[in-house]
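QA checklist item 7 of 12: single-chain prediction sanity check.
[x] sequence parsed
[x] length recorded as 290
[x] structure emitted
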Amino acid sequence: MRTIPKDLIATFSIVGFDPETGELGIAVQSKFIGVGAVVPWAKAGVGAIATQSYANTSYGPEGIKYMEEGKDARDTLELLINDDPDKEMRQVGIVDAKGNAATFTGKECYDWAGGRTGKHYAAQGNILVSQNTVEAMGETFENTKGSLADRLLKSLEAGQKAGGDSRGKQSAALYVVKEKGGYGGYNDRFIDLRVDDHPEPIQELIRIYKLQQLYFGQTRTENVLEIKGAVKEELEKELVRLGYLQKGAEQDELLKALTSFIHVENFEEREQEPGKIDREVLDFMKQKQV
């Protein structure tokens, strides 16, 4: 068996597409610091790419350019590796905006190395305990419901549980693009989360993803509560406890205090019309330590 160089990026990833929302994304884990700065590349309406194993980062922008020109995932992959004299050391997964998927593992990638494609996804990894990691990622993506981000994270978690990277864990990332999906609708960076150095990077990535959804996710209709009765009593109690309100304050003071809390905690995306509150904001308030 070949000796594995100490500076080699050992990685597993999954690239996916959601035809209902048009979202494209990548989830990745690696025994390498800051993997999110190297592996994932994507552009809304175009495609998503994971480049790894002696990663050639030019595969990202070059691959996006090819797909913008109308090339599908397979043609894009062929163009990338054919122009690369070190292609046998590379690994790459691609999904285009029509859901076509392609993966490539060079013959010189370190065992276990390989990939799998299915409907709207490509999963791949190198220096893995076994192929079970890639198989688990693919099967989980195929059989999981929910948003693209949810499916990618569950697939990554399943890959780790199936064996994962034989060298261990260090960093992870989740990158999802969507037309006007970025903050304020000014770009396509819908979700861009990174765990650069952590003993349990996937679990930490899941934790901060849940926070991201709390802060920036849309309020569900069934979670809009009127501030009256028991809800008002509970809200007043928490605002007093957290130092935003004096006990026995009038309704208008309570609403001003709620607005202050929402703005301090960056819950603008969940702010409701006067007299109403998002249940998840109230739940967050109840769990917040003074």
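[x] summary fact logged: The chain has a mean pLDDT of 94.
[ ] second reviewer sign-off
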